[in-house]
Amino acid sequence: MNKKPSPYEMLRVHKSGDAPYQAHFVPEDVRKICVELAPSAYLDVGCNRGQLIAAVKKELHNRAVCVGVEMNAFAAKAAEQVCDRVYSSTFDAAIGGIKADYPGGFDVISFADVLEHMYDPWEAMVLAKELLSERGKCVFQIPNMGHRSIIGGLLSNRFDYELMGLLDVTHIRFFTPGSFEDACQQAGYKIMRKVQVMEENPQPVLSAFSTLITGSEDVKNFLRILGVTQINLPLLAMWQICYVCEPL
């Protein structure tokens, strides 16, 4: 039986550039949205090895200038093979250079499962507005910390980091849709569209929770003790949520 690596060991894997999602993962909902928005200039923050940019470029028939920002040097080097330009640094450090190099701004800027890796994602959201063109939009995808797996773990006295997923060991900020929508408003964005990334077959889970909550006074009392006044059932089966936003 393979022993689960420690958080220390998992972090070493990420820093080496060999995390399992880095080679192939493409966030499909973000890809579809970026293609639909048909940017002439596109910036992907946290572009990894350029998988998302490569997919968008292909569907746009290479008509868009595609730029990436990636702080992992190994991944950034690989991204250079598909991007028109890659800034191998943190986003805040790259801002000045990007503004100087692309004064017209970007029609689409994506943060696909990236903000949760940043110490100050709120500042990043504000800074991104400076890089948008007149018709520019930001696409944010975040993991949902209200998923039932997280709640179940907390009730079982567990909060175990993983190599990837909702509790990716490199996540340092955590959001629910409600808290992230507050962040959008505070950063000066209007939410134009929301796309939920659900479990493959969420209905049995949601039906079971609904039956349990409505049918048991003990459960209702337990939730009241926890301070729960309202439950958004779909949240329990939602892995991620994707937002399309434009500046107010």
Protein model, in words:
The protein is an alpha/beta fold and 248 residues long. The chain contains 12 helices and 7 strands. It has helices at 7-16, 21-24, 28-37, 51-59, 73-79, 91-101, 121-129, 148-155, 177-187, 203-215, 217-225, 233-236, and strands spanning 41-45, 65-69, 85-87, 106-112, 132-143, 189-198, 238-247. The chain is globular, with a radius of gyration of 19 Å.
> How many distinct helices?
12
What number is the mean pLDDT?
Answer: 92
Helical fraction: 40-55%
Number of E-state strands:
7
Helices and strands: which structural class? alpha/beta
- How would you sum up the major sheet? 7 strands, mixed
Uncertain runs: none
Strand order of the largest sheet: 3-2-1-4-5-7-6
SSE succession? HHHEHEHEHEHEHHEHHHE
Please identify the oligomeric state.
single chain
Name the overall outline.
globular
Rounded to the nearest angstrom, the radius of gyration is 19 Å
- Proportion of residues in β-strands: 15-25%
Distance between the termini: 54 Å
Condensed summary:
The protein is α/β, with parallel strands linked by helices. The protein has helices spanning 7-16, 21-24, 28-37, 51-59, 73-79, 91-101, 121-129, 148-155, 177-187, 203-215, 217-225, 233-236, and strands spanning 41-45, 65-69, 85-87, 106-112, 132-143, 189-198, 238-247.
